[in-house]
Amino acid sequence: MNDIIEYIFKRLLAGILVIFAVTALLFAIMQLMPGDAIELVSSPRVPAEKIEELRALWGLDKPVLVQYFYWLSRIIQGDFGTSIVSGQKVLLLIKERLPYTLMLTGGALIIQYIIAIPLGLIAAYKKDSVLDRSIVAFTIGFWSIPPFWLGILLMIIFGVWLKVLPISGFSGIKSIILPLMTMALPGLAGVLRLTRSEVLEVLRERYVETAYAKGMKRNSVLIKHVLRNALIPVTVMFFLNLPWTIGGSVVIETVFAWPGVGPLLWKSISSQDFPVVQGIIFIIAILTVISNILGDIFSSFLDPRVRQELKGEIV
Questions:
Q1: Can you give the pLDDT at residue 315?
Q2: Could you tell me if 303 and 230 are in contact, meaning their C-beta atoms sit under 8 angstroms apart?
Q3: What 8-state DSSP symbol labels residue 173?
Q4: Which of 65, 141, 149, 192 could form a disulfide with 120 if both were Cys (CB 3.0 to 4.6 A apart)?
């Protein structure tokens, strides 16, 4: 247990370094973007002296390195700054929208796993059959469709033609169905292929043959021996996919006018609202580090072989 805690501590330190690197790189990229945030939000009639005064007020007249460490010192104190465009606290803007994004992305991941794991098990057990090929082709078909195009297609079918679901905004539980489908369906292929390959690998193990030789029923072998061991990497993949799903939700949330972080990030990038962009990227970086650590924890608890590897790595 101490070995795992020591390993997690090391991963946490590495994650902090990653966060610093990501935010520093973001600062550099934002500085290279054309245009000026103050000029974008100011009227053309505003005198140049007033613009320079505003730029000094926001600290944009200082060197990039100074701006970065000043922002970092405030972040450590829990102050994410103030939006240049709206004048609101960045942390408040993110807190208002982050629950909607987590609701959408978390729901999409859960739906993916609920559908893909049983299909992957069936496809592996019926390897090279018509059913296997049909399941794989079905999921790869959705994976091949661009998410924004799939979202528009679902809006036309269920919102315009059938008129059974709302196509934008959030007005109740029905509003989340189309965005959830748009995010969940393309991701089925990845989870299904991993589940299928892991199940096929476990099916070739000797202890599975031994279980059949002892007279155990097929369903009991598949669930207690095969699926239990095959789900170890699939479970870890759940946590690793969470930050990537959040990052990929920007397009989906924009298409459906979902009140999440995605539209806020897109709008902030367009208007060069540096404090908001930096705050959102910082939150995503933290979620990425936490997700990776949780994946390692679950992997070590589910698989004794991982604990042995961790022990050897630390030693």
A1: 46
A2: no
A3: G
A4: 192
What number of other Cβ atoms are within 10 A of residue 149's Cβ? 11
Type and span of the H or E element at 29: helix 2-32
What pLDDT score does 119 carry? Answer: 92
Per-position DSSP letters for 121-170, written without gaps between them: HHHHHTTTSHHHHHHHHHHHHHHHS-HHHHHHHHIIIIIIIS--S--SS-
Determine the Cα angle at 127 with ends 208 and 295, to 5°: 65
**What 3-state DSSP class applies to 89?**
strand
187-241 confidence digits (pLDDT tens): 898 899 999 998 888 888 887 778 877 788 877 877 777 877 888 888 878 887 8
223: DSSP letter:
I
Q: What angle do CA 217, 223, 227 make, to 5 degrees?
A: 135
d(CA 24, CA 244): 20
pTM for the predicted model, two decimal places: 0.79
Higher-confidence residue of 150 and 315: namely: 150
